């Protein structure tokens, strides 16, 4: 059952959606998807309050479980980035998370080793740090000029023209974006809903930022953290996430 705002014959705006299983969501919708701020509740009493992107948990939020409380960054419905997990006895695990795994502590361990103890790796301390921009993922890198690339018209031109990627008015037939290609224009449209009142994270003239850890997984985490650096999600009466530059 859905009760709320409609637009373009779809759920669009604020509303509440309930399932026969007892699950309930109330919050923002965009083109039939949970998109924006909202709260999702399960029959067992657990709930998530925070940011959603195309019906997935994405961005900062709070996950209330029976025996634990997690506050942190999500990507594609999974923990992915900085977060704090709190246990009933008051203990906390603080650091960087990937799914259910804590992969990096946000603290220095006494008597831990340092790269300064190994002169053979001194080169890593003197080379210029890499620079990275969020727009790097949006660019299409052509290996060859159009006239020399035999596969250009068969494959790559569909990445350049949104009108060739999906048929017109595709939302009338399906809004299942899990199995549909994501066009650049639709991605910008979705981001505009999320970052409506914040500084746009994909400004074309945006300066790349320095990254300290160039491990592929850590680069992805830093990108996700940087993307949501200006979002503020109210998750309880006493707690809010503010992601600033790191």
UniProtKB/TrEMBL annotation:
Q: Which UniProt keywords apply?
A: Repeat
Asked if the Swiss-Prot or TrEMBL record annotates the protein with the keyword Zinc-finger, the reply is no
SMART domains referenced in this protein's UniProt entry, alphabetically: MORN
This protein's record includes keyword Lipoprotein: no
Kindly give the PANTHER family that the UniProt entry links to this protein: ANKYRIN REPEAT AND MYND DOMAIN PROTEIN 1, ANKYRIN REPEAT AND MYND DOMAIN-CONTAINING PROTEIN 1
Q: What is this protein called?
A: Ankyrin repeat and MYND domain containing 1
Origin organism is: Panthera leo (Lion)
């Amino acid at each position: 059952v859905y009760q709320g705002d409609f637009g373009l014959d779809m759920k669009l705006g604020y509303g509440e959606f309930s399932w026969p299983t007892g699950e309930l969501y109330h919050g923002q919708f965009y083109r039939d998807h949970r998109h924006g701020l909202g709260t999702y509740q399960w029959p067992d009493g657990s709930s998530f309050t925070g940011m959603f992107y195309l019906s997935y948990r994405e961005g900062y939020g709070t996950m209330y479980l029976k025996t634990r409380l997690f506050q942190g960054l999500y990507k594609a419905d999974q923990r992915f980035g900085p977060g704090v997990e709190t246990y009933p006895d008051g203990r906390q695990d603080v650091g960087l998370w990937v799914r259910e795994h804590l992969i990096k502590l946000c603290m220095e361990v006494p008597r831990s080793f340092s790269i300064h103890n190994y002169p053979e790796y001194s080169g890593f301390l003197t080379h210029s740090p890499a620079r990275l921009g969020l727009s790097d993922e949006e660019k299409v890198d052509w290996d060859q000029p159009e006239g020399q690339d035999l596969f250009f018209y068969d494959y790559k031109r569909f990445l350049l023209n949104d009108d060739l990627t999906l048929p017109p008015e595709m939302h009338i037939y399906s809004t299942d974006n899990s199995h549909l290609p994501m066009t650049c224009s639709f991605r910008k449209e979705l981001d505009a809903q999320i970052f409506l009142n914040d500084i746009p994270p994909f400004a074309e003239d945006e300066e790349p930022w320095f990254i300290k850890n160039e491990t592929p997984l850590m680069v992805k985490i830093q990108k996700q953290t940087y993307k949501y650096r200006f979002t503020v999600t109210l998750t309880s009466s006493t707690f809010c996430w503010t992601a600033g530059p790191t």
